[in-house]
Amino acid sequence: MALSRVEKARRPRKPRKKLAFEDAVRAALVAAAVICAAVLGAGGFFAVRSVLASPSLPPPALDAGDGETDGAAPAVPPEAYPGDAGGNTDGGTGILPELEEAIRQLDSGTTPPVPPPAAPPVMPAERKGVLVFVIDDAGNNLRELEPFLAFPGPLTIAVLPALPNSAEAARRIRAAGKEAFLHQPMEPLGAQDPGPGAIKTGMTPAEVKAVLDKNLDEIGPVTGVNNHEGSRATMDREIMKALLEGIHARRLVFLDSRTIADTAGPAAAKELGLDIAQRDIFLDNEQDRDSIIKMINEGMKKAQSSGVAIMIGHTWSPHLAEILTRLYPSFVKEGYYLATVGAILDAGK
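Request: output the structure for the sequence above.
Response:
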């Protein structure tokens, strides 16, 4: 029933002090909530900002169980490559304009951004030539191999057999999308030990093929084979015929590293009716940065004149991976196409 205005006026009222107290408590609680939210928000902002501003973390270290050696020198020292008619050609010391600009950017630290490792090979609009980079002596040291696996373009990486890291190196090369080769040790002219799993003069054709098969079974599957050292063995036509027959039986390709001018590889291949590739340039006989860049320059000249240049370097070369990675955008921009040994031999069939 509705109350009259007088009756409403007579009803007892809540004391004003109690209302004021309750309002004050409510306001204090609201203010505290606002302050907490502001503090948390500011903390989150600074936390996010610190993460975004922090430098990239280095890649995780390899497990100690990898069995790699930490020394920079290779476990199997490289043969002292003699000068030969098919060796490093010096077409003059002039640096190509496209490489000169890349070197200037390299020196100034303004090189173009390097594409991600998963980037596919790029075919330039105007092709000046094909560059094939072969990296030898994988299997000695996994740490030294890693920068080459991160290279954004195609690489052929050759693995020495029967070393503690041989099989794992080959597995990582394939996983990184690079072309894996067997780096077949062969007898040199000097007293150097080419390492385990070597092919030597005096072996029968059956023995040559047995050694080859054992090494391939250890690190395969691979696309092809090139020789490690081998100045004496590669001059032996019968040894080279047996080697090429074994390689052909496995449907693989062969790159003659040409550690000596008198290699019998080309003659043996012609006799068997096989196509092989041959090295044009050694990149790191001298391992300082300027010498490596000079040899890359010679390779680019070779590619311009002959269409293709095959250049060999080594995993233990201290500056090679960084130089190739930083120059890669310039190679592509200036009209050079990067390929693997297997790709150029397949294209020639």
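The radius of gyration is 33 Å.
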